[in-house]
Design a protein that fits this description.
By secondary structure, the chain is an all-alpha fold. The protein is built from 13 helices and no strands.
């Protein structure tokens, strides 16, 4: 029987990715108290958090579909869009800063890759806007910070947080700022670069209405994700829901601007432990919740996404 070298290569690539995913999890699993998860968890909250995963994935799909439909010259099949979402999660998991999420554009067979790259980048930018807005508003309400006993400091920080949030929202709903920056590079630094011109074409039809829709979808996805995190926090300890949300928003904001790691493992748990420690919440509980969130929202979809990578046709290669 003739051995197909292409199939061997395909299997090897999938196996390597699967081994990387497994190795990262095994290497980091000692950093959390696994026994704490088993013995102290309120399973009902965990079930609720898991039940939100399909909704989480659906809004990731909906957001990506909205952008692709605005860019692609022809309709992209729904199946391709779903596959690209799972590819993004898989490649994002095994790359620092989840930059590998941009790999999902290669699942779109007939699209212009440079145009798709531009909307992929704009999608990642818009994902950070809710993080900044909600995170900035939440920080002044954290207890045990240096300004806790100073009403003046707290008031100033609240005003500063509101200014940051308003500026972030203004930037998000005025995409002309992005186009102006791109046009500067297009007309000056990268004037004769054909590929960069194609890259800029991807945002030509991105108007204020599209920006508002994308910001709305990103915000809904952020609320779903943080609601899952809050449910897992509640599963491991006793805390009022308002401080739980403030803590989660602050932890995600802090994680976003810290050094990156594969799958954000370690960074996510460390920031959660630090923020919730300010509220006298057990570190082991917050770390367990953060790790379980990673398992639900990243590890499970990434494991599925690995086996969706076909590498089967010359066209795909």
């Amino acid at each position: 029987m003739k051995i197909d070298n292409t199939k061997i290569l395909i299997f090897s690539i999938k196996l390597i990715i699967a081994i990387i995913i497994g190795s990262v999890v095994i290497y980091n699993i000692d950093a959390i108290e696994l026994r704490y998860i088993v013995k102290n968890a309120d399973v009902s909250y965990i079930i609720f958090a898991v039940s939100l995963l399909p909704l989480n994935l659906y809004f990731q799909f909906l957001k990506w579909k909205y952008l692709v439909d605005k860019t692609a010259d022809e309709r992209v099949p729904t199946r391709q869009l779903w596959v690209s979402v799972f590819w993004g999660i898989s490649f994002g998991f095994i790359t620092p800063g989840r930059i590998g999420e941009l790999g999902k554009l290669f699942a779109i067979k007939n699209g212009d890759k440079f145009k798709l790259l531009s909307i992929s980048l704009i999608e990642k930018i818009y994902d950070t806007f809710p993080v900044i807005i909600f995170g900035a508003v939440s920080i002044p309400f954290l207890p045990h910070l240096f300004f806790t006993n100073s009403s003046v400091m707290r008031t100033n920080l609240i005003l500063f947080a509101l200014i940051i949030s308003i500026m972030t929202y203004f930037t998000a709903v005025h995409p002309g700022l992005f186009r102006m920056l791109l046009n500067y590079f297009k007309n000056n630094i990268l004037k004769n670069n054909i590929k960069f011109n194609r890259f800029c074409e991807g945002l030509r039809g991105f108007k204020k209405h599209n920006a508002r829709v994308l910001l709305f979808l990103s915000s809904v996805l952020f609320i779903i994700y943080t609601a899952q995190f809050v449910l897992l926090i509640l599963a491991f300890g006793d805390i009022d829901i308002f401080h739980a949300f403030f803590g989660v928003w602050s932890a995600i904001l802090l994680k976003t601007f810290l050094p990156v790691s594969l799958g954000d493992i370690g960074v996510r748990e460390g920031t959660a432990a630090y923020i919730f420690n300010l509220m006298d919440f057990p570190a082991s509980a917050s770390v367990s919740a953060a790790f379980l969130l990673f398992v639900i929202n990243i590890l499970l979809p990434a494991s599925v996404g690995v086996f969706m990578i076909p590498f089967t046709s010359k066209h795909n290669r």
